[in-house]
Amino acid sequence: MALLAKSRSYRNRHQRDAWGFLIVGAVLLLVFLVVPFLLAVGMSFTSQRLLSPLPTRFLGTENYERTLGDPDFIQALGNNVRFALLVVPLQTGLALLLAILVNQSLPGVKLFRVIYFMPLTMAMAAAATIWKLLYVPDTGFINGVLGWLTAGAVQPNWLRDQSVALLAVMIVGIWQSTGFQMVIFLAGLQDIPVDLYEASGIDGAGKWKQFRYITLPGLRNTLIFIITVTTIFAFRLFDTVYIMTKGGPLGSTDTMLLRMFTVGFNQLQIGRGSAVAVIFFLFVLVISLAQRFWLRQEGERA
Amino acid sequence: MRQRMSFLAVLLMLVSLLLAACGDSPTATTVATTAAATTAAATTAAATTAAATTVAPAATTAAATTVAPTTAAPAATTVAATTAAPASTGGGTCSATVSGGPYNLKAWFSGGLGDLDVLKTMVDSFNQSQKLVKVEAVVIPAGNFDDQVKAAAAAGSLPDILYLDGPNMYNYVWNGNLKALDACLTPELKADLLPSIIKQGTYQGKMYGVGSLDSGLGLYSRKSILQKNGIRIPTGPKDAWTADEFTQALKKLQASGLKKPLDLKVNYASDGWWAYGFSPIIQSAGGDLINRQDFQSAAGVLNSEASIKSLTIFQSWFKDGLVDINEDDNAFKSGRAAISWVGFWEFPAYKKVFADDLLLLPLPNFGIGSRTGMGSWQWSISAKTPNLDAAWSFVNYTLQTEPMLAVTKADGAIPSRKSVIDKSTQFAAGGEERLYVEQLLGDTAVPRPQTPAFPTITVAFGKVIRDVMDGKDVKAALDAAVKTIDQDIKDNQGYKTVAK
Fold first, then answer.
1. What is the ipTM of this complex?
2. How many CB pairs below 8 A link A and B?
3. Is the pTM of this model over 0.90?
């Protein structure tokens, strides 16, 4: 009996400790993440304005109807999708390639790891400002090199031409974050036991077969993580376009977050800005869930 | 089971919190603001009447001499202490003479100001000049300044004194955040202020902002290059180039070998610049950003024939490759461009490069005469400041001749008082930048529309300019802007004044 009581108190105390630890994080999450988001959901149904002496009115779904009926928003959403469709596979593939390259044990390879990772250590705002200068059509560095390579035939007006502006933004995005994914892939690669490669080598597998049947399956979890995170980052596109194009020319680089910022802060319409935020959240949530579902299925088949 | 219960409890808590926040917030805030407003009104009424009734003569001298607060203030304290005013006159009074105290006031500045050091020195010298009011200058990083002020206004926690750039001021007034300053300005001071500054600071008949600086736009060029190409040199706003003449001049310059002769400071790339720099185009043609009769709609004004025609000319400059995108901000100084469309702030830099060859000309006339933007940073006082006189004594101090000369010299801006303009070498009659003063004294300068819809107008018109530069159909761009602006006004019930 006494023993039982003691064990129960022991368990209780343990549980108390666990709750104690949990509560700190939970409260922080609650105050800074959950509550603000729920407030945003609430405000998205109202006429809430940043500065207004008028009482806030309940609008029902009007903010949502107006946002979804706004051709600018639809264009921004389309840009986000296009950006993600191109950037996610490109960036993941490039990061994997770089990771494999810098995973060799060659002299000086550490230098390359540092070089590839370096763009990430730069503040995005500063990087975007510099890229903006590189993209200048007449005197910029990029067109200078392109002009030299193609004898002046290829001279795109990078940030002011609708057909290439989004591409210009993509290049900056890929340049900046590939290094991050490379490092994660690198960690994943180093987790794959070397004896697997040795054994397969003895069995006569070539480099490609090793990659296909050892490296890729070994990186499955890393891949899932990277694809999910890159997708979310791709939809969160904001700072590059804010600095480089402000969404122009003619809305060709506008994004959902840029719409949210413009509507909410510049036009002071917090209610409608919140509606954009909620739509954005649901959109990303659905895509992430779909990805998880699809990737898990894929994994089970393999 | 227990876990599920606690989860449910947390969820319930959150939902009730959410409901409380949504349902109560308007009433809660209004109650809070009204309560605060009434107490503030009561305290200031009591304090100000004391000052006004007893030491009125001192107030007039305060306007004339810079260090009046030092001499006048101690006297006021004793007076106020002996004759605590029993009743207020209701209209609210204000003077630069402080009673009671000491008062510790906060003033917010944007970190992006070119004359920040001078402003800070001014705060220091004000603090040393008297003992009753101590102003603490709080500098907020430039990028965040606007958002911080908006957030503070929304939360009802603005500092006593704000140094604001025009656009959002009318919003703060509409929201009841600022004090009217009409009672503070002596008739002498008011008569001495540029008419443009009074228009800029006035909302629905009352003045809420007054500053030391005014601004303006002009075309900078080089005498030698215009003469060489046989281009007429205008002498003032009255004989400004017509839009056609201007376009022809650009083409001549292009033919003479300058690939892209026009610098429009495209590199500034902010809605603020698009609205300030290019709304004069439609205004010079007879259009405007909004119908100023009642500020209820932009229809038929912003998308008028005049606006469409003038912006089509603007668009043609881009289509014809006349505009340098100026990414290095060096198009004019390097000589790549022959004409630079920009404000007073570039004068010193351009002067340094071109010396006596530099010309300052009015913007082109698109139909009814040359027009320019105007207005600048200005002082406003929070509705919640414990003592209007104390806050005003500081603002008043900055509007005196010496501080104003110091600030305008550092900023390069036009002084807001005619008497100070006459003392400035740049802007007095015959001065090199006299054009800016002529524009402000005549009907060339157009104030921003005095409406809380201005932030939306800025965003909408900024988009028009960006889209038009990128080749969008001008009428379609303007129609879209009208729709955005009119919707915003409708959403806010016409921005009608709400009784507090």
1. 0.75
2. 93
3. no
